Amino acid sequence: MTNIEAENFFHSLDKFGIRLGLENIQILLERLGNPQKNIKFIHVAGTNGKGSICSMLSAILKAAGFKTGLYISPYVIDFRERIQINNEMIPKNRLGEITEKVAKEVNALKENGVVITEFEAVTAAGFLYFHKENCDYVVLEVGLGGRFDATNVIEKPLVSVIASISLDHTAVLGDTIEKIAFEKCGIIKQNCPVVTNSVQSDKALTVIKDIAKTNNSPLYIADINDIKISESSIYGTHFEYKQNEYYLPLAGFHQVENVCTAIKTCEILDIDTQYIQTGLKNVKNPARIEVVSKNPLIIIDGSHNEAGTKALSDYIQKYLANKKIIGIIGMMSDKDIEHSILNVIKHFNKIYTTTPANPRAINADDLAKIINKHKNIATPVNSPIKAVKQAKNELENFDALIICGSLYLASEVRKGIIDDQPRGTK
Protein backbone atom coordinates (compact mmCIF):
# COMPACT_ATOMS: atom_id res chain seq x y z
CA MET A 1 0.00 0.00 0.00
CA THR A 2 1.37 3.44 -0.95
CA ASN A 3 1.07 6.45 1.35
CA ILE A 4 -1.61 7.93 -0.93
CA GLU A 5 -3.59 4.70 -0.76
CA ALA A 6 -3.15 4.77 3.02
CA GLU A 7 -4.54 8.30 3.29
CA ASN A 8 -7.43 7.42 0.97
CA PHE A 9 -8.22 4.39 3.12
CA PHE A 10 -8.42 6.48 6.30
CA HIS A 11 -10.51 9.16 4.61
CA SER A 12 -12.91 6.50 3.31
CA LEU A 13 -13.92 5.63 6.86
CA ASP A 14 -16.68 7.24 8.88
CA LYS A 15 -15.14 10.59 9.84
CA PHE A 16 -17.43 11.84 12.58
CA GLY A 17 -18.68 8.63 14.13
CA ILE A 18 -18.95 9.14 17.87
CA ARG A 19 -20.22 6.41 20.13
CA LEU A 20 -20.46 6.04 23.88
CA GLY A 21 -17.68 3.65 24.75
CA LEU A 22 -14.29 2.46 23.63
CA GLU A 23 -15.23 -1.11 22.73
CA ASN A 24 -14.51 -0.83 19.00
CA ILE A 25 -11.03 0.65 19.32
CA GLN A 26 -10.28 -1.97 22.00
CA ILE A 27 -11.34 -4.77 19.65
CA LEU A 28 -9.22 -3.34 16.82
CA LEU A 29 -6.14 -2.94 19.00
CA GLU A 30 -6.51 -6.45 20.39
CA ARG A 31 -6.40 -7.81 16.83
CA LEU A 32 -3.21 -5.78 16.30
CA GLY A 33 -1.55 -7.19 19.41
CA ASN A 34 -2.39 -4.31 21.79
CA PRO A 35 0.67 -2.20 20.90
CA GLN A 36 -0.47 0.59 23.24
CA LYS A 37 0.17 -1.60 26.30
CA ASN A 38 3.93 -1.37 25.76
CA ILE A 39 4.16 2.42 25.46
CA LYS A 40 4.77 5.17 28.04
CA PHE A 41 2.29 7.96 27.37
CA ILE A 42 1.84 11.58 28.35
CA HIS A 43 -1.87 12.15 27.64
CA VAL A 44 -3.05 15.71 26.91
CA ALA A 45 -6.66 16.96 26.80
CA GLY A 46 -8.22 20.44 26.80
CA THR A 47 -10.11 22.91 24.64
CA ASN A 48 -7.32 25.33 23.77
CA GLY A 49 -3.57 24.88 23.95
CA LYS A 50 -3.31 21.10 23.98
CA GLY A 51 -1.64 21.00 20.57
CA SER A 52 0.93 23.59 21.63
CA ILE A 53 1.62 21.76 24.90
CA CYS A 54 2.10 18.51 22.97
CA SER A 55 4.60 20.18 20.62
CA MET A 56 6.50 21.60 23.60
CA LEU A 57 6.65 18.28 25.44
CA SER A 58 7.75 16.43 22.32
CA ALA A 59 10.55 18.93 21.62
CA ILE A 60 11.75 18.80 25.24
CA LEU A 61 11.80 15.01 25.45
CA LYS A 62 13.67 14.82 22.15
CA ALA A 63 16.22 17.34 23.47
CA ALA A 64 16.66 15.11 26.53
CA GLY A 65 17.72 12.27 24.25
CA PHE A 66 14.51 10.24 24.32
CA LYS A 67 12.96 8.69 21.23
CA THR A 68 9.67 10.53 21.38
CA GLY A 69 6.46 9.80 19.52
CA LEU A 70 3.90 12.54 18.91
CA TYR A 71 0.28 11.91 17.99
CA ILE A 72 -1.78 15.00 17.08
CA SER A 73 -4.82 16.11 15.10
CA PRO A 74 -5.71 17.68 12.80
CA TYR A 75 -2.72 18.12 10.51
CA VAL A 76 -1.81 21.44 8.86
CA ILE A 77 0.44 20.61 5.90
CA ASP A 78 0.69 16.85 5.51
CA PHE A 79 -1.46 13.99 6.81
CA ARG A 80 1.70 12.34 8.16
CA GLU A 81 2.11 15.15 10.71
CA ARG A 82 -0.38 13.27 12.84
CA ILE A 83 2.16 10.53 13.57
CA GLN A 84 5.72 11.69 14.30
CA ILE A 85 8.88 10.50 16.02
CA ASN A 86 11.47 13.07 17.11
CA ASN A 87 9.69 15.74 15.05
CA GLU A 88 9.95 13.63 11.87
CA MET A 89 6.72 12.58 10.19
CA ILE A 90 6.13 8.88 9.65
CA PRO A 91 7.91 8.04 6.34
CA LYS A 92 5.63 7.43 3.38
CA ASN A 93 6.64 3.78 3.00
CA ARG A 94 6.09 3.11 6.72
CA LEU A 95 2.66 4.74 6.61
CA GLY A 96 1.74 2.37 3.79
CA GLU A 97 3.07 -0.69 5.64
CA ILE A 98 1.37 0.15 8.94
CA THR A 99 -1.91 1.13 7.30
CA GLU A 100 -2.02 -2.13 5.35
CA LYS A 101 -2.02 -4.04 8.64
CA VAL A 102 -4.67 -1.78 10.17
CA ALA A 103 -6.86 -1.89 7.04
CA LYS A 104 -6.84 -5.69 7.04
CA GLU A 105 -8.30 -5.76 10.56
CA VAL A 106 -10.71 -2.88 9.96
CA ASN A 107 -12.17 -4.63 6.92
CA ALA A 108 -12.43 -7.94 8.78
CA LEU A 109 -14.28 -6.25 11.63
CA LYS A 110 -16.64 -4.53 9.20
CA GLU A 111 -17.70 -7.93 7.87
CA ASN A 112 -18.67 -8.80 11.45
CA GLY A 113 -20.68 -5.61 11.93
CA VAL A 114 -18.01 -3.63 13.83
CA VAL A 115 -17.50 -0.24 12.14
CA ILE A 116 -14.25 1.56 12.86
CA THR A 117 -14.08 5.35 12.43
CA GLU A 118 -11.26 7.26 10.75
CA PHE A 119 -9.94 8.60 14.04
CA GLU A 120 -9.96 5.16 15.63
CA ALA A 121 -8.06 3.67 12.69
CA VAL A 122 -5.44 6.43 12.59
CA THR A 123 -4.99 6.17 16.36
CA ALA A 124 -4.41 2.42 16.03
CA ALA A 125 -1.88 3.05 13.25
CA GLY A 126 -0.05 5.53 15.45
CA PHE A 127 0.14 3.09 18.35
CA LEU A 128 1.41 0.32 16.07
CA TYR A 129 4.12 2.56 14.58
CA PHE A 130 5.30 3.87 17.96
CA HIS A 131 5.47 0.33 19.35
CA LYS A 132 7.38 -1.06 16.36
CA GLU A 133 9.84 1.85 16.56
CA ASN A 134 10.43 1.30 20.30
CA CYS A 135 9.63 4.85 21.40
CA ASP A 136 10.73 5.82 24.90
CA TYR A 137 7.75 8.16 25.30
CA VAL A 138 4.68 9.12 23.29
CA VAL A 139 2.95 12.48 23.69
CA LEU A 140 -0.69 11.74 22.94
CA GLU A 141 -3.18 14.47 22.07
CA VAL A 142 -6.88 13.82 22.63
CA GLY A 143 -8.99 14.26 19.51
CA LEU A 144 -12.31 15.32 21.04
CA GLY A 145 -13.32 15.47 24.69
CA GLY A 146 -11.45 12.77 26.56
CA ARG A 147 -13.65 10.22 28.28
CA PHE A 148 -14.82 8.49 25.09
CA ASP A 149 -12.01 9.65 22.80
CA ALA A 150 -10.21 6.78 21.05
CA THR A 151 -6.90 7.82 22.63
CA ASN A 152 -8.38 7.08 26.07
CA VAL A 153 -8.09 3.38 25.36
CA ILE A 154 -4.66 3.54 27.02
CA GLU A 155 -4.63 2.07 30.51
CA LYS A 156 -2.45 4.43 32.52
CA PRO A 157 -0.30 7.32 31.26
CA LEU A 158 2.73 8.63 33.12
CA VAL A 159 0.96 11.99 33.39
CA SER A 160 -2.49 13.29 32.42
CA VAL A 161 -2.39 16.93 31.32
CA ILE A 162 -5.50 19.13 31.22
CA ALA A 163 -4.99 22.28 29.12
CA SER A 164 -7.30 25.30 29.16
CA ILE A 165 -11.01 24.40 29.14
CA SER A 166 -13.68 26.56 27.50
CA LEU A 167 -16.91 26.16 25.54
CA ASP A 168 -16.46 24.25 22.26
CA HIS A 169 -18.07 21.21 20.63
CA THR A 170 -21.06 21.83 22.91
CA ALA A 171 -23.36 19.56 20.88
CA VAL A 172 -21.15 16.60 21.79
CA LEU A 173 -19.49 17.51 25.08
CA GLY A 174 -22.21 19.55 26.81
CA ASP A 175 -23.24 23.18 27.03
CA THR A 176 -21.54 24.20 30.29
CA ILE A 177 -17.92 24.45 31.42
CA GLU A 178 -18.62 21.84 34.09
CA LYS A 179 -19.96 19.30 31.60
CA ILE A 180 -17.06 19.85 29.19
CA ALA A 181 -14.52 19.65 32.02
CA PHE A 182 -16.04 16.35 33.13
CA GLU A 183 -15.52 14.91 29.64
CA LYS A 184 -11.95 16.22 29.39
CA CYS A 185 -11.13 14.81 32.83
CA GLY A 186 -12.09 11.36 31.59
CA ILE A 187 -8.39 10.88 30.81
CA ILE A 188 -7.52 11.02 34.53
CA LYS A 189 -6.67 7.52 35.73
CA GLN A 190 -6.28 5.96 39.18
CA ASN A 191 -3.10 7.05 41.02
CA CYS A 192 -1.81 8.88 37.94
CA PRO A 193 -0.36 12.42 38.30
CA VAL A 194 -2.48 15.22 36.81
CA VAL A 195 -1.19 18.60 35.63
CA THR A 196 -3.27 21.69 34.88
CA ASN A 197 -2.68 25.43 35.18
CA SER A 198 -3.73 28.23 37.49
CA VAL A 199 -5.59 30.15 34.79
CA GLN A 200 -8.34 27.54 34.53
CA SER A 201 -11.75 28.95 35.39
CA ASP A 202 -13.01 28.24 38.90
CA LYS A 203 -15.73 26.00 37.43
CA ALA A 204 -13.26 23.90 35.44
CA LEU A 205 -10.74 23.72 38.28
CA THR A 206 -13.38 22.49 40.71
CA VAL A 207 -14.22 19.59 38.39
CA ILE A 208 -10.54 18.77 37.82
CA LYS A 209 -9.86 18.74 41.58
CA ASP A 210 -12.91 16.56 42.31
CA ILE A 211 -12.09 13.95 39.66
CA ALA A 212 -8.40 13.86 40.60
CA LYS A 213 -9.37 13.31 44.24
CA THR A 214 -11.85 10.57 43.32
CA ASN A 215 -9.08 8.76 41.42
CA ASN A 216 -6.51 9.28 44.18
CA SER A 217 -4.43 11.11 41.57
CA PRO A 218 -2.00 13.81 42.76
CA LEU A 219 -2.87 17.16 41.18
CA TYR A 220 -0.17 19.66 40.20
CA ILE A 221 -1.32 23.17 39.31
CA ALA A 222 1.21 25.09 37.23
CA ASP A 223 1.26 28.66 38.56
CA ILE A 224 1.43 31.32 35.86
CA ASN A 225 2.90 33.69 38.47
CA ASP A 226 6.09 31.59 38.46
CA ILE A 227 6.83 32.98 34.99
CA LYS A 228 8.38 36.42 34.62
CA ILE A 229 8.41 37.78 31.06
CA SER A 230 11.58 39.71 30.26
CA GLU A 231 10.93 40.41 26.57
CA SER A 232 8.27 39.57 24.01
CA SER A 233 7.61 40.26 20.34
CA ILE A 234 5.41 39.11 17.48
CA TYR A 235 7.78 36.14 17.14
CA GLY A 236 8.08 34.80 20.68
CA THR A 237 8.82 35.35 24.36
CA HIS A 238 11.89 35.46 26.60
CA PHE A 239 10.97 34.58 30.19
CA GLU A 240 12.30 33.46 33.54
CA TYR A 241 10.95 30.47 35.45
CA LYS A 242 12.33 29.66 38.89
CA GLN A 243 15.49 31.68 38.18
CA ASN A 244 16.21 29.98 34.84
CA GLU A 245 16.04 31.79 31.48
CA TYR A 246 14.00 30.44 28.56
CA TYR A 247 12.99 31.45 25.05
CA LEU A 248 9.77 30.26 23.41
CA PRO A 249 9.41 30.94 19.66
CA LEU A 250 5.61 30.83 19.89
CA ALA A 251 3.87 34.17 20.23
CA GLY A 252 1.10 35.37 22.52
CA PHE A 253 0.49 35.38 26.26
CA HIS A 254 -1.66 32.26 25.97
CA GLN A 255 1.51 30.37 25.02
CA VAL A 256 3.03 31.45 28.32
CA GLU A 257 0.12 29.69 30.03
CA ASN A 258 0.80 26.61 27.91
CA VAL A 259 4.55 26.60 28.52
CA CYS A 260 3.95 26.85 32.26
CA THR A 261 1.88 23.67 32.04
CA ALA A 262 4.51 21.94 29.89
CA ILE A 263 7.36 22.79 32.27
CA LYS A 264 5.40 21.54 35.28
CA THR A 265 4.79 18.26 33.41
CA CYS A 266 8.52 17.95 32.70
CA GLU A 267 9.30 18.52 36.38
CA ILE A 268 7.12 15.52 37.22
CA LEU A 269 9.00 13.51 34.58
CA ASP A 270 12.29 14.66 36.16
CA ILE A 271 13.63 16.30 33.00
CA ASP A 272 16.68 18.52 33.54
CA THR A 273 16.34 22.28 33.05
CA GLN A 274 18.91 22.38 30.23
CA TYR A 275 16.80 20.03 28.11
CA ILE A 276 13.65 22.04 28.77
CA GLN A 277 15.50 25.18 27.65
CA THR A 278 16.83 23.51 24.48
CA GLY A 279 13.52 21.87 23.61
CA LEU A 280 11.46 25.02 24.02
CA LYS A 281 13.93 27.05 21.96
CA ASN A 282 13.36 24.67 19.03
CA VAL A 283 9.63 24.06 19.29
CA LYS A 284 7.42 24.55 16.24
CA ASN A 285 3.63 24.60 16.04
CA PRO A 286 2.29 25.64 12.62
CA ALA A 287 -0.81 27.81 12.29
CA ARG A 288 -0.92 28.94 15.91
CA ILE A 289 -0.38 32.70 15.56
CA GLU A 290 2.37 31.84 13.12
CA VAL A 291 4.27 34.54 11.27
CA VAL A 292 4.68 32.97 7.83
CA SER A 293 5.99 36.12 6.13
CA LYS A 294 7.80 39.08 7.66
CA ASN A 295 7.66 41.43 4.68
CA PRO A 296 4.81 41.73 3.97
CA LEU A 297 3.63 40.66 7.42
CA ILE A 298 1.32 37.64 7.12
CA ILE A 299 0.07 35.73 10.14
CA ILE A 300 -1.90 32.47 10.15
CA ASP A 301 -3.90 31.34 13.16
CA GLY A 302 -6.14 28.31 13.43
CA SER A 303 -8.19 29.67 16.35
CA HIS A 304 -11.79 28.61 15.92
CA ASN A 305 -13.63 29.34 19.17
CA GLU A 306 -14.18 32.29 21.49
CA ALA A 307 -11.21 31.53 23.75
CA GLY A 308 -8.89 31.06 20.78
CA THR A 309 -9.87 34.28 19.02
CA LYS A 310 -9.58 36.11 22.35
CA ALA A 311 -5.91 35.02 22.46
CA LEU A 312 -5.46 36.29 18.90
CA SER A 313 -7.18 39.55 19.82
CA ASP A 314 -4.83 40.05 22.78
CA TYR A 315 -1.85 39.42 20.49
CA ILE A 316 -3.06 41.99 17.94
CA GLN A 317 -3.76 44.52 20.67
CA LYS A 318 -0.26 44.13 22.13
CA TYR A 319 1.84 43.99 18.96
CA LEU A 320 -0.25 45.42 16.12
CA ALA A 321 -2.37 48.12 17.76
CA ASN A 322 -3.34 50.96 15.41
CA LYS A 323 -2.06 49.04 12.39
CA LYS A 324 -4.10 48.72 9.21
CA ILE A 325 -4.98 45.02 8.92
CA ILE A 326 -6.70 42.91 6.28
CA GLY A 327 -8.38 39.82 7.70
CA ILE A 328 -9.37 36.61 5.96
CA ILE A 329 -11.85 34.56 7.96
CA GLY A 330 -13.28 31.11 7.27
CA MET A 331 -15.03 28.98 9.88
CA MET A 332 -16.95 25.79 10.49
CA SER A 333 -20.71 26.23 10.76
CA ASP A 334 -20.94 24.26 14.03
CA LYS A 335 -18.81 26.79 15.93
CA ASP A 336 -19.99 29.72 18.04
CA ILE A 337 -19.33 32.02 15.12
CA GLU A 338 -20.76 35.28 16.41
CA HIS A 339 -18.92 35.32 19.74
CA SER A 340 -15.71 34.14 18.09
CA ILE A 341 -15.57 36.77 15.35
CA LEU A 342 -16.41 39.67 17.66
CA ASN A 343 -13.01 39.25 19.29
CA VAL A 344 -11.08 39.88 16.08
CA ILE A 345 -13.13 41.92 13.60
CA LYS A 346 -12.71 45.04 15.74
CA HIS A 347 -9.01 44.99 14.79
CA PHE A 348 -9.55 44.61 11.04
CA ASN A 349 -9.95 47.41 8.50
CA LYS A 350 -11.06 45.08 5.74
CA ILE A 351 -12.19 41.45 5.71
CA TYR A 352 -12.53 38.76 3.08
CA THR A 353 -14.70 35.87 4.18
CA THR A 354 -14.07 32.53 2.54
CA THR A 355 -15.25 28.92 2.51
CA PRO A 356 -12.69 26.31 3.64
CA ALA A 357 -12.79 23.00 1.76
CA ASN A 358 -14.71 21.14 4.42
CA PRO A 359 -18.37 20.03 4.40
CA ARG A 360 -18.89 21.65 7.81
CA ALA A 361 -17.71 25.09 6.62
CA ILE A 362 -20.05 28.05 6.69
CA ASN A 363 -20.52 29.65 3.26
CA ALA A 364 -18.49 32.82 2.68
CA ASP A 365 -21.64 34.81 1.87
CA ASP A 366 -23.37 33.78 5.09
CA LEU A 367 -20.27 34.54 7.16
CA ALA A 368 -19.97 37.98 5.55
CA LYS A 369 -23.58 38.75 6.49
CA ILE A 370 -22.90 37.86 10.13
CA ILE A 371 -19.80 40.06 10.23
CA ASN A 372 -21.44 42.97 8.44
CA LYS A 373 -24.17 43.11 11.06
CA HIS A 374 -21.47 44.27 13.47
CA LYS A 375 -18.96 45.98 11.19
CA ASN A 376 -19.68 46.53 7.51
CA ILE A 377 -16.25 45.64 6.09
CA ALA A 378 -16.63 42.04 4.87
CA THR A 379 -16.61 40.85 1.26
CA PRO A 380 -17.16 37.16 0.41
CA VAL A 381 -14.63 35.30 -1.77
CA ASN A 382 -15.50 31.61 -1.80
CA SER A 383 -12.06 30.28 -2.70
CA PRO A 384 -9.50 30.67 0.14
CA ILE A 385 -6.63 30.78 -2.37
CA LYS A 386 -8.34 33.54 -4.35
CA ALA A 387 -9.06 35.42 -1.12
CA VAL A 388 -5.37 35.32 -0.15
CA LYS A 389 -4.30 36.38 -3.64
CA GLN A 390 -6.70 39.32 -3.55
CA ALA A 391 -5.57 40.37 -0.08
CA LYS A 392 -1.86 40.09 -0.95
CA ASN A 393 -2.44 42.34 -3.98
CA GLU A 394 -3.74 45.02 -1.61
CA LEU A 395 -1.11 44.66 1.11
CA GLU A 396 0.89 47.69 -0.01
CA ASN A 397 -1.95 49.77 1.49
CA PHE A 398 -2.03 47.79 4.74
CA ASP A 399 0.39 46.80 7.49
CA ALA A 400 -0.53 43.13 7.88
CA LEU A 401 -2.67 40.24 6.68
CA ILE A 402 -4.15 37.91 9.29
CA ILE A 403 -5.83 34.64 8.27
CA CYS A 404 -7.91 32.96 10.98
CA GLY A 405 -11.04 31.05 11.95
CA SER A 406 -10.16 27.40 11.30
CA LEU A 407 -7.25 25.00 11.15
CA TYR A 408 -8.81 23.67 7.95
CA LEU A 409 -8.51 27.13 6.41
CA ALA A 410 -4.97 27.46 7.76
CA SER A 411 -4.01 24.16 6.15
CA GLU A 412 -5.49 25.03 2.78
CA VAL A 413 -3.91 28.47 2.63
CA ARG A 414 -0.52 27.49 3.97
CA LYS A 415 -0.20 24.63 1.48
CA GLY A 416 -1.57 26.43 -1.54
CA ILE A 417 -0.15 29.92 -1.20
CA ILE A 418 2.38 30.51 1.52
CA ASP A 419 4.29 27.30 2.14
CA ASP A 420 4.99 25.68 -1.20
CA GLN A 421 7.60 23.40 0.37
CA PRO A 422 5.88 21.34 3.13
CA ARG A 423 8.03 19.94 5.93
CA GLY A 424 9.21 16.40 5.33
CA THR A 425 9.43 15.13 1.78
CA LYS A 426 10.45 11.54 2.45
Can you put this structure into words, describing what you see?
This protein is an alpha/beta fold and 426 residues long. 41% of the residues lie in helices and 17% in strands. The protein contains 15 helices and 17 strands. The strands form three sheets. An eight-stranded mixed β-sheet has the order 4-3-2-5-1-6-7-8, sandwiched between helices. It has a six-stranded mixed β-sheet with strand order 12-13-17-14-15-16. Helix 3 packs across helix 10 (273-281), helix 4 (92-111) packs across helix 5 (118-132) and helix 12 crosses helix 13. Mean pLDDT is 93; it is low at 419-426.
Which architecture of the largest domain would the CATH scheme give at its second level? 3-Layer(aba) Sandwich
Number of helices: 15
Regions with little confidence, pLDDT below 50 for 5+ residues: 419-426
Helix content: 40-55%
User: What's the CATH H-level homologous superfamily of the largest domain?
Assistant: Mur-like, catalytic domain
Structural class: alpha/beta
Could you report the average pLDDT, rounded to the nearest whole number? Answer: 93
**Text of the CATH class of the largest domain:** Alpha Beta
Count of the separate structural domains: 2
Sum up the overall morphology in one term.
globular
Distance between the termini: 16 Å
How much β-strand is present in the residues? 15-25%
Biggest sheet, strands in spatial order?
Answer: 4-3-2-5-1-6-7-8
Please write out the topology.
Layout: H1 3-12, H2 23-31, E1 41-45, H3 50-63, E2 68-71, E3 83-85, E4 88-89, H4 92-111, H5 118-132, E5 137-141, E6 159-162, H6 170-173, H7 177-184, E7 194-197, H8 202-214, E8 219-222, E9 227-232, E10 237-241, E11 244-248, H9 253-268, H10 273-281, E12 290-293, E13 297-301, H11 306-319, E14 325-329, H12 337-345, E15 350-353, H13 364-374, E16 378-380, H14 384-393, E17 400-404, H15 407-418
Parallel strand pairs: 1-5, 1-6, 2-5, 6-7, 7-8, 13-17, 14-15, 14-17, 15-16
Antiparallel strand pairs: 2-3, 3-4, 9-10, 10-11, 12-13
